[in-house]
Design goal:
The chain is of the alpha/beta class and 456 residues long. It folds into four domains: 146 residues, Alpha-D-Glucose-1,6-Bisphosphate, subunit A, domain 3 (Alpha-D-Glucose-1,6-Bisphosphate, Chain A, domain 3, 3-Layer(aba) Sandwich), CATH 3.40.120; 83 residues, Alpha-D-Glucose-1,6-Bisphosphate, Chain A, domain 3, CATH 3.40.120; 107 residues, Alpha-D-Glucose-1,6-Bisphosphate, subunit A, domain 3 (Alpha-D-Glucose-1,6-Bisphosphate, Chain A, domain 3), CATH 3.40.120.10; 73 residues, Alpha-D-phosphohexomutase, C-terminal domain (TATA-Binding Protein), CATH 3.30.310. 36% of the residues lie in helices and 20% in strands. It is built from 14 helices and 18 strands. The strands form four sheets. The protein has a six-stranded mixed sheet with strand order 1-5-4-2-3-6, with helices on both faces. The chain has a five-stranded mixed sheet with strand order 8-7-9-10-11, sandwiched between helices. α1 packs across α2, α1 crosses α4 and α8 packs across α11. The longest helix has 19 residues. The chain is globular, with a radius of gyration of 22 Å. The N terminus is likely disordered.
Amino acid sequence: MGTWNRNVATARKYFGTDGIRGQANRSPMTADMALRVGMASGLVFHNGDHRNRVVIGKDTRLSSYMIENALTAGFLSVGMDVLLTGPIPTPGIAMLTRSMRCDLGVMISASHNPFDDNGIKLFGPTGFKLSDAVEAGIEDLIDADLSNRLADPPDLGRAKRIDGVQDRYVEFAKRTFPRHLSLDGLKVVIDCANGAAYRVAPQALWELGAEVIAIGVEPDGFNINDGVGSTAPEALATRVRESGADVGIALDGDADRVVIVDEKGRLVDGDQLIAAIAESWLVDRRLSKDGVVVTVMSNLGLERFLNGLSLSVVRTAVGDRYVAETMNEQGYNLGGEQSGHIIMSDFATTGDGLVAALQLLAIAKTVDRPLSEICHRFEPVPQVLKSVRTAGQSLENGRVQKAIDAANRQLATRGRLVVRASGTEPVIRIMAEGDDPAVIAAIVDELAAALVEAAA
């Protein structure tokens, strides 16, 4: 079923698959860079004679204060007003950008990465992440001399902190849950990764009637994603089993992705969530088209399951913004990533971990069945993943290309191969899947060896 080696990040200097990201206070994630990003993106989105506005949110990392202030200075210097929300989930910024009629939205977060990383994500006025072309235009301005494009003293922007936005996000999330249902009788463990949703997610679940046990809700600037959250769900699984909870929900640092733990303590990834929601929406005739959009990393088992329901599968490059772009262009209303970014365009323009979890809980309440029966819709095809720390240029090496060609011939129609440069880290990611675990493991090992040799 072929390979995929598109590297969306190589043509750009700063932007990766999800904004600009790096170690805090090291290039490119410095205060100077944040200042220039604010200036450059402010100029790109400075439209019309009205007072242009940007809303800026952040997660709980220590470095977010530094980046927030530098971004603010950049925007003010080109005449944009700045609204500061404090900690709020990434989908909250996407929602506020639209509802507050801002010209731009910014989220300061490195998502699931440890505290010493940080990042800048940008949203256009419609709440969607920016296209490659717009990001390329911003990059050109980042490296340009902007001294003659600064605002005149009377035209400088103003900044202020706004209150109540967390409550607005809670109400938004609750409105996605069916009005005739409640979470009464459900015991829910919510793991907020000591991140952006540490207040809003437990509050929304409690207001919908759940008995809530919250972990990962004591951020200190350093402990985001540290042994908690969607990339470390072991603590959640343990708490679910110990407390006899009906479900566990793990968000990441900025709450745009989610993984679920069923009442038996078993992990449920994004592919299984997409399968469950797609099947339910098919029955309820809520799918806008007979299919879903996923990335090249989604398991072949998901594709086979959905095809069995007569649903098509459209695959995109890795990154939830590519999923969202394809959904928007082709008219699909459900898509997502294996990692837990679930996009439901009826509700939001980007992945929203809490909203995805609420859709799953709505299914559970409607059919009155435990999560273990709802969330395991297919058996995943054996899949092997490996990351090799090397430069992206290694993909152009002759031996590497020969190894990829040989692997494709070996898999033929019995599996899939994905080889790509990460857009967030200096690594090459290899994924192979197929019905014979020994074959795919050998393929991944051979490709990894070729990449290591090419980098030597």
